[in-house]
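To the structural biology subgroup,

Please find below the input and predicted structure for ABC transporter ATP-binding protein, which we are adding to the shared reference set this quarter. The sequence is reproduced verbatim from the submission form. If anyone notices a discrepancy with their own records, reply to this email rather than editing the shared folder directly, so we keep one authoritative version.
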Amino acid sequence: MHEHVISLADVSFRFPDDPENTLNGLTFEIQRGERVVISGPSGCGKSTLLYLLNRLYPLNCDGIDEGDIHLFGKSADDYRPGEINRRIATVFQDPDSQFCMTTVEEELAFTLENLRVPRADVERRIVDVLDQTGLANFRQSVIQSLSGGQKQRVATACALISEPEILLLDEPLAHLDPLTARNFVQWLDGLQRQTGLTVVAVEHRLDLWERFFEREIVLGLDGQMIADHPSDSKAPVAFPQSATGMTGRPALSVTELSVEISGKQLLAPLSFDVEEGEIAVIAGPNGSGKSTLAKALCGIYKHSGTVRSPGTGYVPQSPEFLFLTNSVADELAFSGLATTETLNDLAERLMLTPIWDAHPFSVSHGQKRRIAIGTMLADNRPVIIMDEPTSGQDTAGLQELFSLINERSREGITFLIITHDMEFAAAVADSILLINDGRLTGKFRAEDVWADPSLLDEHHLLPPRGADRREPTFA
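Predicted structure (tokenized):
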């Protein structure tokens, strides 16, 4: 007889200020050792469901829940605050939201202290989890000096150090370079086989996981469960044929640009040009300097060298840093440069109409990113830099984002896009800027990168699906 570690019976949930439920009538069970993925369109309540399972909700948001949730055979309401976190660990979508300490070692030790782990066991657990997650060389690193992908690995280490029985993952591959993402999946596969860990993950890009998951629970936009079936390996998102908008006229000229912070050189002097209407993808390993380059180009980081551009807009990796108003509508209209017709078109195409009056901080991660993208497109900046715009986007969102970028490039807008999504990069890119260890390897045609195994390996990239004939190493 199998043991149900999670059991939901007719569970609904509503945030206190919302007139409608986010989740509606969910009923399912998860057995010990299962590998389950929760999928569905952006904003359907996937992350909210995870927060009900780890009991962050309803208490931490004053939410209203109905129905019954049992964890390890005990009613969820019977656990004391924080008690369940000894057995259920979570890696959140935004790793910054779960860090309290300065360095990696301090964060791991803090987690163990909260769990009242005996001091004699602390060192062993820290060493073990750093080895497990490939972070041994980052033990003394300041967390906020790490890249988004490195932070995600630290957050995973903090979750695993508690030696949980259930691991909840909220889009854990979103900020990982392709090779690191594949290695993470293979490593998690081995760990789960060894420990019998129950894995429940929220994910849009199921193709990245190959055949890892055994079961898929699908939510609809109304927060109801619309499917519960065995998981299979999904095909990557398909995009239409791209048409270049390159005009031959310069739009961005970078000469001997370098960045040094607190005596550490983050970017070595680099130079490149991007044409008007060109779509350039910036790619490379986690921590290679991609986001540093983006912040230098738009003036957030001080730098030496020169950057010539007619005007730059920036969509950061954490889009909420852009928000200045109390509604999605006001956010897109903030610059006053877009017509009502343009705003309505962006709202519809970016699927923001249902949340038009919502506060930008109250919506899902994927919706926040689309708000920030819409704001920059409404401003009509000549050069737009986007840092991981595909993160948190479902298939429809990815396809619409592709169409908007493709159309605007033909109107003369220039894009620089940091992404680890190689299918999206292959579809949209006119060129690829490869960065490694703070140095620009060069600017290449996209097709030349996919055809060069040494370039791919050096920059932790995998060719887009279809070009890669290698079989995964796990069943």
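Summary notes: The first helix runs from residue 46 to 53. The mean pLDDT is 90.

Regards,
Lab coordination
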